[in-house]
Amino acid sequence: MVAASPYRPEFEAALRLLARISAGMDAVGFRPPVLVGGAAVEIYTRGAVNTGDFDLSCGRQDVLEDLMQQHGFVRPSGPGKATRGWVHPDLRLGFEVVSDVLLDGLADREMVQVVELAPDGAIAVIAPEDIIADRMGQYASGSAPEMLGQARALFALCEGLDLSYMERRIREETGGSHGIQDLEDQARGSDA
Question: pTM score > 0.85 for this model?
Answer without folding.
Answer: yes
